[in-house]
Specification:
Layout lengths: L6 E6 L10 H24 L3 E6 L5 E7 L2 H17 L21 H13 L19 E5 L4 H10 L10 H8 L1 H16 L1 H13 L5 H28 L21 H39 L5 H4 L2 H27 L5 H59 L4 H8 L22 H6 L5 H35 L19 H4 L3 H7 L2 H14 L6 H18 L6 H23 L13 H24 L3 H4 L5 H14 L5 H39 L3 H25 L16 H7 L3 H11 L1
Antiparallel strand pairs: 1-3, 1-4, 2-3
Helix pairs in contact: 2-3, 4-20, 5-6, 6-8, 6-19, 6-20, 7-8, 7-20, 8-21, 8-24, 8-25, 9-11, 9-12, 11-12, 12-15, 12-19, 12-21, 12-23, 15-20, 19-20, 19-21, 21-24
Length: about 750
């Protein structure tokens, strides 16, 4: 039986980002590491915890294994129970008024959360202040928890193909905490909700009309119902899991600086808006340029190497967009830290909103350009690009002739001229691109929107699943090869960390190693392997699902099979996320929460935006009713329909464009107001149908009443009983008024009315 370890503190002997040091610097670093390591062990032991250091994965790493004795754990539970009571947070399975507050059960996740909070919280909040990478503990790399491998194996086996969620969410919550359990509940609920649009899209794909107004309307209703239903489910879960209002008892962040005026906090939050706009503008310019290059320029180019040139947009996207996003995330994190958030939940919410803003633009801008620029105005843009290219080509030809550069020789070398092929005719810069307008028009891809939707919904998600599941195995194999490890038997030679006292015990090292049991060695191997894993962040998983919801709500009118593809992907996603947590990531540190945070706001925003995009798509691309019966190629007809809007009734192109865009904007505004009305109605109906009169609503009222009764009983016991209420006697005014109060005329009036009748 391996020892019970609550947490593992990863300690770095040498500071990171240090390559070459002198002997004196190495000695100073060793002394600093020894002082900080000794202080760390003393701090943990003085707090009543048991801590012991073991050798890590390499020479500059130590692992401090920490366990919490029962008496310290009881004290932590006692403090949290009373803190929850004082701040009005319903306690898990609240005991009756006669029982003690500490009698509630404690799950493994609660135990890890209590110990982790105790170690990493600031001293004003009752913690030890051991915060990784802070100024005082800069050599502490992280504080992590170990996996329960028996539960993980059982959990993975339960993801059968018969049900989407074969494991109870309460068990996930007991192991990984509220945050991870809430994500899997959201993933399960969202996947089940996709069944309706998947069936609807399948029916309309084979039997419906393209860009159907009915399909778009039903899709909008579905998205509104799902978002409002999930908001109620959050409330129900928070009551069921007793986490409603958990933000009130959240510990303060270590970087929080109290005393900052409110107007400075608001100014710092507003100050990040110009940075967001700047990066959004840069990203929009890059994506638009890549779009024009991929959709028009590469289609017009017919010179040497045109097959290779077609890969240029993809290469530019892979070279530029990830760097822009990485730089933006770095600046967003710095600005969020500068905003001086008191709690980690508000810090995470602010960061999530910033990051998702550009992530959504990166995900949806390509489809927006194709839908509202390429399809309706593709021919005009193609002609504009032709004029621009040929204008530049003429200038290039003049420059080449001035310098007497023979373009034939250049192309001959580039097209394999060494093999003896001959280039017929004199080649100039003018015939590198398509000159005929009709041929250029034929190069427009009428099915571009559907191909993009397939790439985003199917191809990208297959690649993402491989990156989450397959790529960690590849990286481990590469890392094992670099470190000279044997991948066949799975055993690796570990290097020990050498401190000054290692020389004293060096002679007895062999004897100590022999005394170690096989079970202990296997346990330490497991600990070291888990330390090498990256930390799990539920932010990325939420981002994937919300982005996918955006594809379904905003753009599935283009390709009605998108919800079905998303449903199939999520069937795999639930299992791949569980496998990723159990196999490729560290155990998540449990966090108390009662909401999915800013992702609910993102879902609401995407639902509102879907009202605009769906109405505009239907207005622009839905073929007239008289053409539906003779329609052969849907995409060609859609393009012709938009083209007629563009050049209709003999008017000039600019006037037709302004009219078309104005009408589409007007339709989108009407749809926006319709969305607000629909959301109000759906919210009211779901509130009455799901929340009012539910067991969770009654439980919330009962808990609130019980906590107040317990408080009143404690107040009564302190005062020694309830004092009788005394009422001052009303002074007698006079005997004449006694007759006034004695005579009642009501009965006589009623009898008089009866006689009159």
């Amino acid at each position: 039986m391996p020892p019970h370890v609550d947490l593992v503190v990863v300690f770095r002997v040498t500071p990171p980002k240090v390559t070459s040091l002198s002997k004196e610097q190495l000695r100073q670093n060793a002394l600093k590491a020894e002082r900080q390591y000794t202080a760390l062990i003393d701090t943990l032991n003085r707090a009543g915890l048991k801590a012991v250091g073991k050798s890590g994965e390499n020479q500059d790493q130590l692992l401090i294994l920490v366990t919490c004795p029962q008496n310290v754990l009881s004290r932590l539970v006692h403090c949290e129970r009373y803190s929850d009571f004082l701040y009005g947070l319903p306690m898990s399975k609240l005991p009756s008024v006669e029982e003690d507050l500490d009698a509630a059960p404690l799950s493994p996740a609660d135990r890890i959360r209590l110990v982790h909070t105790f170690i990493t919280s600031t001293p004003p909040d009752g913690g030890l202040g051991i915060i990784p990478k802070c100024k005082e503990w800069d050599l502490v790399e992280s504080v992590m928890a170990l996996h329960d491998h028996d539960f993980n194996e059982h959990w993975i086996r339960l993801w059968t193909r018969h049900r989407i969620a074969s494991v109870q969410l309460d068990k996930i919550r007991d192991q990984f905490g509220d945050s991870v359990a809430l994500y899997f509940f959201f993933l399960t609920a969202y996947t089940r909700a996709l069944i309706f649009p998947a069936v609807l899209g399948l029916v309309f794909y084979f039997f419906g009309t393209p860009y159907s107004a009915l399909y778009s309307s039903l899709l909008l209703v579905w998205s509104v119902v799902f978002v409002e239903w999930w908001a109620l489910q959050e409330r129900i879960l928070s009551v069921r899991w007793c986490t409603r209002g958990s933000f009130r008892v959240e510990k303060r962040r270590a970087d929080y600086r109290p005393g900052l005026p409110w107007w400075k906090k608001e100014f710092r939050r507003v100050a990040s808006i110009p940075i967001i706009i700047l990066f959004a503008s840069v990203l929009a310019v890059i994506l638009t340029g890549i779009f024009v290059l991929e959709a028009f320029v590469t289609q017009l180019y017919k010179g040497p190497g045109h097959q290779i040139i077609s890969f240029t947009p993809t290469i530019l996207f892979m070279a530029l967009v990830p760097k822009v996003m990485a730089s933006y995330k770095l600046h967003a994190r710095r600005f969020t830290d500068w905003e001086n958030h008191a709690h980690q939940s508000s810090h995470s919410n602010s960061l999530a909103i910033k990051v998702f803003t550009l992530s959504a633009m990166n995900a949806y801008l390509g489809l927006a350009l194709s839908a509202f620029v390429y399809v309706p105005f593709g021919e005009s843009v193609m002609h504009f690009v032709q004029r621009y290219i040929f204008s530049g080509s003429r200038h290039a030809a003049i420059i080449l002739e001035r310098f007497s550069i023979n373009l034939n020789d250049t192309i001959k070398v580039g097209s394999g001229g060494g093999r003896g092929e001959k280039v017929a005719g004199k080649v100039t810069a003018l015939n590198l691109f398509e000159a005929d307008r009709e041929n250029a028009r034929q190069k427009l891809n009428p099915s571009r929107l559907q191909e993009q939707m397939f790439a985003f919904i199917v191809t990208n998600q297959v690649v993402d699943n491989f990156m989450e599941i397959g790529m960690p195995y590849v990286l481990r194999a590469v890392d094992s090869f670099r470190n000279g490890k044997s991948s066949r038997n799975g055993k690796a030679k570990k290097k020990r960390v050498a401190f000054d006292d290692d020389s004293v015990h060096g002679q007895n090292q062999g004897q100590v190693q022999e005394k170690r049991t096989k079970e202990e060695r296997e346990f330490l191997e497991i600990v070291r392997s888990e330390v090498t894993r990256p930390e799990y962040d539920v932010f990325e998983d939420y981002g994937e699902m919300v982005t996918q919801f955006g594809y379904i709500a905003l753009w599935s009118t283009i390709w009605s099979l998108a919800p079905l593809m998303a449903l199939l992907n999520n069937y795999i996603e639930a299992r791949s996320d569980a496998f990723k947590i159990a196999t490729h990531a560290r155990r998540p540190i449990p966090v108390r929460t009662d909401t999915i945070g800013p992702w609910l706001e993102s879902l609401s925003f995407l639902t509102w935006l879907s009202a605009l995009t769906n109405s505009a798509l239907v207005y622009l691309f839905r073929p007239p009713d008289d053409e539906l019966s003779t329609q052969v190629d849907v995409d060609v007809d859609i393009g012709l329909h938009a083209h007629r809007h563009h050049h209709g009734h003999g008017r000039n192109g600019s006037a037709a464009t302004k009219e078309l865009l104005g009408q589409a904007l007007l339709v989108a505004l009407f749809a926006s107001h319709g969305y607000l009305l629909l959301r109000t109605i759906v919210r009211r109906i779901l509130e009455l149908a799901i929340w009012r009169g539910s067991e969770e609503a009654k439980e919330a009222e009962r808990v609130n009443k019980e906590m107040k009764e317990k408080y009143l009983k404690q107040c009564t016991s302190l005062t020694g009983g309830t004092k009788p209420v005394t009422v001052d006697a009303v002074p007698r005014v006079g005997d004449d008024w006694e007759v006034f109060w004695a005579v009642d005329e009501g009965v006589e009036e009623i009898q008089r009315l009866v006689k009159d009748v």
